[in-house]
Specification:
This protein has about 230 residues and is of the alpha/beta class. It contains 8 helices and 9 strands. The longest helix has 22 residues.
């Protein structure tokens, strides 16, 4: 039986002080929490003055960490092995599918509650993920009853790709951004994700950030901001 946990996290209200007309949900990476991404609202809210931003904390604590959260366990994740032998990548991301599915129930409940609270439809929702948060954004965003306005995935991967063609229920635009020097999620994950999404009929764009490790640079922020403005304007 899937456990649905109530999620919450830091929020930033619309810049113009009026009721929100769009919602951007920021999904953090492994070992962080909502505070790790909510500051991005300050960068993008100039473009989206009628948008509310929220960054929910993942439902589980990282074992042994007093602060860090996880969407699902990464106990068996070994980026060094992926770099040594990329053939293991498909099996590695396939193994994460069970954890993503378990966490998806809580995230879906959160998204439904937020949209209902603001009186917004799915086409007024954009999902932004970083690392493990990208995995969740893609997993949930492509299986929603109605398509969100779009999904941006920074430094992440596609999990559950084998079942995507059968389970996909909507086709929002997707933008993937990744550093070519990422030691945590090797850049090949972006290309694999782009291929998997395209095979499922998703309109996907991607951008490679030269010299960037596991993070988000100014170019990525600018590209994501333009995409959000285009999708939600």
């Amino acid at each position: 039986m899937t456990t649905i946990r109530r999620l919450d996290g830091p929020r930033v209200s619309p810049a113009e002080g009026s009721p929100a007309r769009q919602l951007v949900v920021l999904l953090h990476g492994y070992g962080a929490d909502g505070n790790d991404l909510i500051e991005l609202a300050g960068i993008w809210r100039r473009r989206l003055p009628a948008t509310e931003f929220v960054a929910p904390n993942a439902p589980e604590r990282v074992p042994g960490s007093p602060f860090g959260c996880q969407w699902f366990s990464l106990d068996r994740y070994d980026p060094e092995q992926l770099r040594r032998d990329p053939r293991h990548a498909a099996d590695t991301y396939r193994a994460m599918e069970f954890g993503a599915r378990a966490a998806a129930a809580s995230l879906e409940a959160f998204l439904a509650a937020e949209l209902a609270r603001l009186g917004l439809s799915d086409d007024r929702l954009a999902l932004i993920g970083f690392s493990q948060g990208t995995m969740m954004a893609l997993h949930c965003g492509l299986r929603r009853p109605a398509a969100p306005a779009g999904i941006v995935g920074f430094s992440g991967a596609l999990v559950g790709g084998d079942a995507l063609a059968e389970e996909i229920s909507c086709q929002p635009p997707v933008l993937l951004i990744h550093g070519d020097a990422d030691p945590v999620v090797p850049v090949q994950a972006m290309f694999s994700a782009a291929n998997g999404l395209a095979a499922a009929g998703i309109g996907v764009q991607w951008h490679l950030c030269p010299g960037l490790a596991h993070g988000i640079d100014e170019t990525g922020l600018e590209l994501a901001g333009r995409a959000l403005q285009s999708w939600l304007a």
